[in-house]
Amino acid sequence: MPLIALCIVHKNYKNLDRPSMVQKIGSLYLGIKTNVKWAALGYTPIFLLRRLIFVAISFALSDKPYLQVHLFIYMLLWYVIYIEMVLPHETRLQTTFEHVNEALLLLICYHFVIWTGPGPEIDVDTKLSIGWSCVSFIGTLVILNALWMLGT
C-alpha cells in the first residue's frame, strides 16, 4: 500500500493542484506541501510504512518486548529526523503538533523501557507510580489529538 500511494502521487505530481486531482487522490497529500519538496509527498507512504513495520515488529518479536521498545524508539527518532529535514506539512503549527505527538510517544516508550529492560527488579509501588505516569502521558496524547481533530 505505501508503495502504491507513492507511485500514484509521483505519477500525478505536476497536476496535484488541479481540482479534479484533489478530488481523486487529494487524501494522499491532504495537509502536505505540494510545491516545495518532492520528498514531502512521501509523507503518507512513509507514515503507512511506519505503521506496517510497527505491526510487523509487534508480531515478529512478541517474545522480546525489550527489543520491540528499542526498535520503536529507533523508528520514532528516524521519523522525527525525516519530519524536520523535509518539513512536509503546510503550516508550522502542523509540524509542531507532529513533534509534540512524537515526543509524547517517546516518553511513553521510555516508560516501557523501564518495565521491559534487563535492569534490577523494581518494587510494586515504583511500578505503580511508573504505570500512572505512563497512563497520564497516554491520556495527554489522546486528549491533545482529540482537541486537534475537533479544532480542524
Commentary on this structure:
The protein is an all-alpha fold and 152 residues long. The protein has one domain. The protein contains six helices and no strands. The protein has helices at 2-11, 19-25, 43-60, 65-86, 92-116, 124-151.
Write the layout of secondary structure elements.
Layout: H1 2-11, H2 19-25, H3 43-60, H4 65-86, H5 92-116, H6 124-151
Helix pairs in contact: 1-3, 3-4, 4-5, 5-6
Concise description?
The protein is mainly α and 152 residues long. It has helices at residues 2-11, 19-25, 43-60, 65-86, 92-116, 124-151. The protein has one domain (2-151).
Spans of at least 5 consecutive residues with low confidence:
none
Order of helices and strands: HHHHHH
Task: Please state roughly what percent of the residues sit in beta strands, choosing from under 5%, 5-15%, 15-25%, 25-35%, 35-45% or over 45%.
Answer: under 5%
Tell me the number of structural domains: 1
Structural class: mainly alpha
Number of strands: 0
| Beginning-to-end CA distance, first to last residue | 27 Å
**Chain-averaged pLDDT:** 86
Largest β sheet strand count, sense and barrel closure: none
What spatial form do the alpha-carbon principal axes imply?
Answer: elongated
So how many helices? 6
Radius of gyration: 18 Å
The percent range for helix content is over 70%
- What quaternary form is this? single chain
